[in-house]
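so im writing up the methods section and need the Transcriptional regulator record in one place, dumping it here so i stop losing it
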Amino acid sequence: MARPQSHPTPVLLGFGEFELDEANACLLRNGQAVALAPTPFLLLCVLARQPGSLVSKDALLDAVWGHRFVSDSVLKTAISDLRKVLGDDPKHPRFIATVSRRGYRFLSVSSSASSMPPADTAVLAASSPTLPSFIGRIAEIARLQRAWERAGGGQRAVVLLAGEPGIGKTTLIEHFLAGLGGIACARGHCMEHFGTGEPYLPVLEALADLCRSAPTLPALLREVAPTWLLQLPWLSSTQERDTLRRELAGVGPERMLREFGELLDRFTELRPLLLVTEDLHWSDRATVQLINYMARRRGPARLMWLSSFRLAEVVALEHPLSSLRHELRLQRLCEEVVLDPFSETEVADYVALRSASLACDEAFVRALHERTDGVPLFVSSIITEVMDVKEDETTIEARLADLAVPENLAAIIDHYIAKLAPEQRTLLCAAAVCGSDFRIETVSLALERNLTSVIGACEELMREQVWLTQSRTPDVDEAVELPYSFRHALFRQVLYERTPRSLRIDLHRQVGTVLERERSTGVPVAASELAMHFDRARLPMIALRYYAEAAEAALLHFSPDLCIGLTERALALLMQAPEGAERDTLEITLATLQGVSAFHMFGVGSKAKAAFERGYTLLVEVPEHPMRGRLLHGFGYLLGLRGDYLQALDVAERAEALSLNANDQELMLAACIVQGEVHHLQGRTKMTRSWLERALAIAEPLGIGTNEIFAADPQVMLHGMLAIELVRSGLIEQGRTHMQQARTRAHTLRQPMTWLVATWQEVLIEVRLGNSVRVAALADDMHKLVDEYSLALGRTACRWWRGWADARNGAPHDGYRHIREAYEEHTGLGMRSGASEVLGYAAEALQLTGDYDAAHVELQEALRVGEELGERVYLPQLLLLEAAIARAQDRSDAGNAAVRAAIEEARDQEALWLELLALIELCEYHDAVPADRQALVMLIDQLPETHATEQVKRARSLIEAANRG
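--- predicted struct ---
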């Protein structure tokens, strides 16, 4: 690979307060060495060699990076780094001017001798080797470089960079990046937050960063990672996002993990990627889970994921990263690099950046090391303090001896705070309230200060290189003023804590009000950020409104854990809000959202039920609540899954009454669906059909599809449910017609949860028809769908149906095991709906193994659970199974009684197909009398749609044989 060639005539140039000496590889400001990475330094030399002339982008890329493939963004980054060091404003340049879309121009020509540094300093620079801009860490950098080389070869690398505040984690990362040149790098930071952190925040920031430099990434997101595309709304239209939300309704958070893995696998096929996430001690749980997933993901990937964190905080706060780092290290799935404080030698090297003679003073270096414990930020602060010459007669050594060295970094920051002018301190306090990053417009409006003066103050603080820096590299000709950020998170943290409480409260109110106003003009401000500000401003009602909005947004972005965190904080805050209709309205909203989130995260357990009950109770006070449909349908559905059928019917009846009062068709539809589901499970065939037909008549003209109330398309759901009831009634062809309508619409909608529902309902039909081969195929289809889209609802059902099919297809032992394992997992989550039927599958599998005693025990458990729940939908089949077991045990009387009980139960349920099956069983194996055979003949004649089935063909054979006999 070609490398940039050095120029035969090195540059020696004075400009402004700077001197550039290419031969000695140094840049001086007022005689003092300036730390500058190799790439920006070479870039400066190339520009300075042609003062006043336009140097094109291509020429700069060739001169600095040779013939390596790098993008324009790499050049922009290097120019930005160079401008920061020179203190050059791109809008009002002194040294480097941007020529739009073409390149850059160096403005200064060689200055007079008066601008050169003092002679002694110049001699020092000329006579010594390159001044180090980075101290120590040779072994650590080498480890990072080896990890990057492994990643480049296709062996994914996860590297954790640990150390205490001020130890130099960010500096190490910066230096490592500078040495890699124009690589693909995505970088994100975790933020100190209030309560639950935003899921994947640093990763989303990194992806947004990568999208700016990798124009193919948005298309790849659309293709393989639509859930991540939704998290970056500026990459898609409103219509596209709405379509995606409908298609991805019901998708679990696990889907995001798999999509991210596929995204990076595909991206790194073209070029290696370095993903950097900093300050993981502030990370959310989802980001830690993602790191775990990527570390364990199989297959090659040219990816290095480098993350930094404060070791003590991760351990002390029992952060989820604490246990994960140990697990990954034990399994050799990650590498951990721990930064230690500077040694005396490294402290001396650092001092040499300011004074070569002082670095040779062993006593001074030893004293400095002892006073700072070798913490780099501590060393930097103290050396700046003692070399800030104010009194010429005092030696540096004396100033160090007299200096009251603070005991920790917080005390150092207190020292810097004390040096701030009152206006600077107020500005920085407001900035600290805004967060690690802040917009100067926001601070200006919050403090009611002139924008120009705030910009000037921020620029001055940035030039001091203590408090502020710019958040990101500006794009060429970017008109928007970029946000600023605190140079070190600890500075912002200490300043915020040192701000008087009353002032902090007032600043949160002012900042929140400004952000609210800016948001109304189109500035993107998250609802969670506004909630935090108004919460800390002691304005609970405003905070609660934004907490509710933020919680709903979290659900839309597949983050039920964040939604739970937000609603928990908000519900605790309710105690501070005045009683009244507005508080009740907000509480219903929050309780509903918490119930939906808890259902997604934990199933139908007590947490979800308690949340829904809280909202349901308050609905009496606010019957017109806009979220009542979501609350009532969600609560009714949850109760049905729990097997609390009577309570579910009460909820459905209340929904019906409210819908009639307000002429709310969606609410009526929800009521009808819950009624239909419960009556089906209770074995009321005709009543179920009545509710479903009523619901379908409402759903078809509404055409609402999936929304916040219905996770699956109502029409698909209703056609499938009606198909099951028609089959139970012996109307096989009509049932198949409705099932085909459900499948066709589900296929057209391309929405995973809707397709899952359609497949689920078709399986139930085929089970009732006894088609084990078809059930096996559908169960496998369902399993693939559940895995691909992380649909928690079908995770157990697909396994017990596959077990049912296996048992009937010749593998009853395996079938029983699959059924029982899925049942235990299902009921362990609190879901008891359909439990008697699944236990019936298990009993049948045992019967097929020939273990009739065990089958009898399992069957009795199924009957007991059905009685307990009031669940009769599968009772006729359970009674027929009891007859088969009794027959195998030579208990013919018991078998005959069980068959006749099955016939009576089927007639009571008005389930003519089940009655037909029971009559066939009676005529084939038990003591049927002529009246029984006559009843079978009449029933077959009554059900012409059953004539093509194998069961009816068998019945006709039995009748013919009886007639011959």
